[in-house]
User: Which sequence fits this backbone?
C-alpha cells in the first residue's frame, strides 16, 4: 500500500504528502505553521516537541521519514532517557469527517498493540508497542514503539542492494512464517484489556517487514498490522483479513525479493532463479498458484523440509534456513572436520553429546568466523593501556573468579609469539550525579592520552570524538532470599516483581511484604557498592527521578553483594526481615542464596533472564538453583527485552592515532575464544557460544 496515493484531496507536487519535503520546508521558513504552504497537508512534528502519553512524556528528536501509512520519528522518553520510535498517523480534515476522526482514534487507542495473554516473554519479532496515543484535540494518532533505531524495510533493502539470494529468501520466509504461526495461534491482550485468540497481520508487504543485520545474518521484524494501519485509509475494507491472505502476501513478497522486480509474473519461468527449483515450487504453493498451504505452521514445516540446491550441497555450505531449523548430522560432521583441521583438540567439543535445546540455541546464529585469538587478523605488535572504573563491571569480573584470572592473562597477551600486549588500569572515579559521569571520566583518560581505550557501559551515544564497539551484555538482577522454608518470598511473589512495585520497595512506599504477599515481614532494602550498578538501577528502575533517587539513597543499606547474599537467608529464616537487593550479573546469576526475580514491565511483559540449561525454560521458585544447571538467556539481552540489561562497550577515540581499541574489541567479538571467556566470567555473549573455550 503506497503512501503516494493515500491523500488525493491534497495536490502534492511530489505526489506523496507523507514523504514530501515541502511540509518540512514550511516548518523551517514559517515558525508555528501547522500546514504545508503548498498543499495544506499537516506538517511534521518538530524537534524538541513533547507528547504526553499515559506511560510518560516523549520528546521528539528528529523526523526519520515515511513508512507505510505514516511518518516515523526518533524520540526519547523524558525521565527514563529510553530511546523510542514514534509512528504518526494522520486524519486530515479534507479526508475524514469529525465523527470519523473520533471513531478511528477511539478504536486505535483500544487495539493498537499486542501482548501475549499468558504473560510469558516471547520474542515473536513483532515490534513491541509502548502505547497508542490518540489526542482528541489534534488530527494525529501516535504509536510509540520500543526501538532505539529504525530498521530498514525490505523495500529499502531491495532499493539499495538489489535482489536477495535464494538462501536469504529462505531465511526471510522461515522467520516470517514462524512469526505468523505465533500470531495466528496465540492468545493476545489488547491495550484495552480485550483478549483475542489469533491475530491476522493483514498487511504483509515490503514496507511492513523490517530487516536488522547484514546480508549474512539478520532478523526479520513485522510491523504495521492492518488492524490499526488501515484505520487511516479514508475507505478501509469492511472485510476482515484471513490467515491465508498472510501466506499469499508472503509468497508474493518472497518472489519479489528473489528477482527484485515487483512487476514480474511468477507464471513466467524466465524470471525464476535456476539453482533452487524447490524454492520455486514452494513459493508458487505459498502464493496460491498451486495447492495452497492450510496454515502458517504447515507452510513452515514444508519449508524446513525442502531439499537444498545442488550448488549448496556440493560446496558443503549450510544455508541460513538450516541455521534456523535443526543441525543435521552432515552439518555436525562438517563442523567436526573443520574443527579437527583448525584446532586439533577442538574435535573433543564437537563430538561430545549435545541436548536438542543446545542445538536449537546455537542454530539460530551464524557461527563466529574465528575460534581463537590467534585467528583474528589485524592485531598489531606493541603495548597499549586501557582503563575501566575501579568498581565497574570490567574490573570486577577480572578479579571475581578463577576463570577471571584466565581471562586477564589471556587478554594481556592474547596472541602467543607476538608483541601485542594490553595492560589494564583501573580508574578510581568518584560517583557523580551527572549522568554517565563515570563513563565520560574514563573517556577523558583516553582523550588525555593516559590510555588508549576504555571499557564501560553507556546509556547514551559517546561524544562526537569517540567511537564504540559492543563486546558483550551486562545487566542487573533483583533478588530476594531463596529460603528452603515452605513459605518463602520467591514462591509468594510467583518468581516475579512488577516494576511499579519495585520502585515502591526501593523508595520506601512498601514497608512490609504483606502488602504484596501473605508473608508478614518488614522490607529491608540493600544496594550493591558498584557505582555502575547504582547508576543503571537509578536510570532503569527509578527512571532518573531525583526525588525517587533521594528516597532510595536514604533507605538503602549499601554493602557488597556477596555479604547481602550471605545475610539474607539467615535474616528471613530467623523471621527478622525480608531483604531485597540487586547486583550486576557476574555477582548474582550463578549463586543460590538470592532468587533472581523476573521483571514485569509497565506493559505487563514478564522477563526472566535466567534459564534452565537442559529444558530451555525460565527458572521457577521450585527449581534447585544450587545445582548450577542454569544459564543466562542470550536472546533476551540481544532483543533488548530485559529492562535491566545494557551493553558493555570498548570506547576509543576517532582520530585513528591508535587502533588498539578496535583491535581489542575484534579479539573479543570475532572469536569463539573471546566470547566464551566473557561468558565464563558472568557476562552475556553477543550470541550463544560453547561451554568449553578453545
Assistant:
Amino acid at each position: 500500500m503506497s503512501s503516494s496515493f493515500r491523500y488525493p484531496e491534497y495536490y502534492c507536487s511530489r505526489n506523496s504528502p507523507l514523504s514530501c519535503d515541502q511540509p518540512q520546508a514550511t516548518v523551517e521558513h514559517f515558525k508555528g505553521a501547522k500546514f504545508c504552504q503548498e498543499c495544506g497537508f499537516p506538517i511534521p512534528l518538530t524537534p524538541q516537541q513533547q507528547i504526553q502519553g499515559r506511560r510518560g512524556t516523549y520528546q521528539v528528536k528528529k523526523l526519520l521519514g515515511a513508512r507505510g501509512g505514516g511518518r516515523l520519528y526518533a524520540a526519547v522518553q523524558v525521565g527514563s532517557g529510553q530511546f523510542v520510535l514514534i509512528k504518526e498517523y494522520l486524519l486530515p480534515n479534507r479526508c475524514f469527517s469529525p465523527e470519523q476522526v473520533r471513531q478511528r482514534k477511539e478504536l486505535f487507542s483500544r487495539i493498537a498493540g499486542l501482548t501475549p495473554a499468558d504473560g510469558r516473554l516471547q520474542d515473536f519479532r513483532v515490534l513491541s508497542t509502548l502505547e497508542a496515543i490518540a489526542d482528541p484535540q489534534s488530527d494525529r494518532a501516535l504509536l510509540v514503539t520500543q526501538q532505539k533505531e529504525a530498521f530498514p524495510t525490505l523495500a529499502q533493502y531491495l532499493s539499495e542492494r538489489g535482489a536477495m539470494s535464494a538462501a536469504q529468501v529462505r531465511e526471510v520466509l522461515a522467520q516470517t512464517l514462524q512469526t505468523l504461526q505465533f500470531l495466528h495461534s496465540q492468545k493476545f491482550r489488547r491495550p484495552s484489556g480485550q483478549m483475542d485468540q489469533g491475530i491476522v497481520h493483514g498487511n504483509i508487504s515490503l514496507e511492513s517487514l523490517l530487516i536488522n543485520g547484514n546480508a549474512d545474518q539478520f532478523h526479520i521484524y513485522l510491523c504495521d498490522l492492518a488492524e490499526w494501519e488501515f484505520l487511516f485509509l479514508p475507505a478501509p475494507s469492511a472485510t476482515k483479513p484471513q490467515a491465508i491472505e498472510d501466506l499469499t502476501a508472503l509468497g508474493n513478497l518472497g518472489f519479489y525479493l528473489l528477482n527484485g522486480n515487483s512487476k514480474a509474473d511468477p507464471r513466467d519461468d524466465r524470471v525464476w532463479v535456476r539453482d533452487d527449483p524447490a524454492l520455486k515450487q514452494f513459493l508458487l504453493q505459498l502464493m496460491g498458484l498451486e495447492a495452497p498451504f492450510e496454515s502458517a505452521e504447515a507452510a513452515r514445516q514444508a519449508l524446513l523440509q525442502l531439499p537444498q540446491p545442488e550448488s549448496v550441497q556440493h560446496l558443503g555450505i549450510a544455508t541460513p534456513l538450516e541455521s534456523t531449523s535443526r543441525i543435521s548430522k552432515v552439518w555436525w560432521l562438517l563442523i567436526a572436520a573443520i574443527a579437527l583441521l583448525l584446532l586439533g583438540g577442538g574435535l573433543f567439543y564437537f563430538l561430545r553429546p549435545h541436548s536438542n535445546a543446545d542445538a536449537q540455541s546455537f542454530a539460530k546464529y551464524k557461527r563466529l568466523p574465528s575460534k581463537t585469538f590467534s585467528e583474528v587478523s589485524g592485531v598489531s605488535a606493541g603495548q597499549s593501556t586501557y582503563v575501566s572504573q575501579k568498581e565497574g563491571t570490567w574490573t570486577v569480573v577480572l578479579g571475581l573468579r578463577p576463570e577471571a584470572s584466565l581471562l586477564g592473562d589471556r587478554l594481556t597477551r592474547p596472541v602467543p609469539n607476538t608483541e601485542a600486549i594490553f595492560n589494564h588500569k583501573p580508574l578510581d572515579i568518584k560517583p557523580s550525579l551527572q549522568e554517565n559521569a563515570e563513563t565520560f571520566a574514563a573517556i577523558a583518560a583516553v582523550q588525555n592520552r593516559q590510555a588508549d581505550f576504555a571499557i564501560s557501559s553507556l546509556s547514551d551515544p559517546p561524544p562526537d570524538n569517540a567511537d564504540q564497539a559492543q563486546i558483550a551484555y551486562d545487566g542487573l538482577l533483583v533478588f530476594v532470599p531463596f529460603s528452603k522454608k515452605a513459605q518463602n518470598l520467591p514462591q509468594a511473589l510467583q518468581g516475579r516483581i512488577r516494576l511499579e512495585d519495585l520502585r515502591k520497595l526501593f523508595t520506601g512506599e512498601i514497608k512490609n511484604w504483606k502488602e504484596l504477599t501473605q508473608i508478614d515481614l518488614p522490607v529491608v532494602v540493600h544496594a550493591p557498592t558498584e557505582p555502575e550498578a547504582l547508576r543503571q538501577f537509578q536510570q532503569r528502575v527509578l527512571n532518573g527521578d531525583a526525588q525517587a533517587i533521594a528516597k532510595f539513597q536514604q533507605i538503602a543499606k549499601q554493602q557488597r553483594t556477596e555479604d547481602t547474599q550471605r545475610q539474607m537467608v539467615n535474616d528471613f529464616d530467623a523471621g527478622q526481615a525480608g531483604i531485597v537487593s540487586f547486583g550486576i550479573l557476574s555477582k548474582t546469576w550463578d549463586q543460590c542464596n538470592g532468587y533472581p526475580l523476573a521483571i514485569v514491565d509497565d506493559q505487563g511483559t514478564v522477563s526472566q533472564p535466567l534459564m534452565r540449561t537442559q529444558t530451555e525454560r525460565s527458572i521457577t521458585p521450585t527449581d534447585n538453583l544450587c545445582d548450577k544447571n542454569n544459564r543466562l538467556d542470550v536472546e533476551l539481552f540481544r532483543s533488548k527485552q530485559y529492562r535491566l540489561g545494557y551493553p558493555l562497550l570498548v570506547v576509543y577515540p576517532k582520530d585513528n592515532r591508535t587502533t588498539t581499541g578496535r583491535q581489542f574489541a575484534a579479539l573479543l567479538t570475532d572469536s569463539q575464544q573471546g566470547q566464551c571467556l566473557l561468558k565464563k566470567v558472568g557476562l552475556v555473549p553477543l550470541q550463544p557460544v560453547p561451554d568449553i573455550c578453545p
Remarks:
- The first strand starts at residue 50 and ends at 52.
- Confidence is low (pLDDT under 50) at residues 1-5, 311-366, 431-436.
- The domain at 475-645 is CATH 3.40.190.10 (D-Maltodextrin-Binding Protein; domain 2).
- The first helix runs from residue 22 to 29.
